[in-house]
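Attaching the record inline, Q. Sequence:
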Amino acid sequence: MNLRIQPETRLSVLLAAHPELEPRLMTALPGIAAVRSEAMRRSLLEGTTLGQAAHLAGLPAPEFVSAVRAWAGEEEEEAACGPGGHVPLPPTPRPDWAAQFTPRFHISADEMLAAGVHPAGKVRQCASLLGPGEMVVLISSFCPSPLIQMMRQAGFEAWTGEEAPGRWESCFRRATEADGITGS
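Structure, as predicted:
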């Protein structure tokens, strides 16, 4: 079955085309995995889209759909800088804070995605633990533009740049720093 994975794709349709994704989806969606009744679970899978599942997983739909596409081995659009066909962020110079802050957490997006876990939750969790002068560093093989935008909307400063071909570094810090270092 040739299926283009989209936010409106029903979980039942996705699993019919890619049954190998069920363990990863159930890990990402513990609420559905916990349903013991097979009939009820089947009903939930038939009625739930990937976009709705993203909400259940606590992730932005574009990020969740991108992860599912990666799990399924679906090719991304060539014009994109990352999974999901997202428009690249305009290049910006590394801000002073990203050069001077101490990385408290290092996260590999590619390792997490390969293990079936989306990095957005880990980035948010780590960012919430940051103190003054600290940052989270995310390394990925793609530009995580939806994650950057999500963190900015959540009140964090974020920067990303391609440090080498196919190696993106993204830095996150609390938006209000009393250290006097500015720049976004």
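The chain has two domains: 11-72, 96-174. The two ends are 45 Å apart (CA to CA).

More tomorrow.
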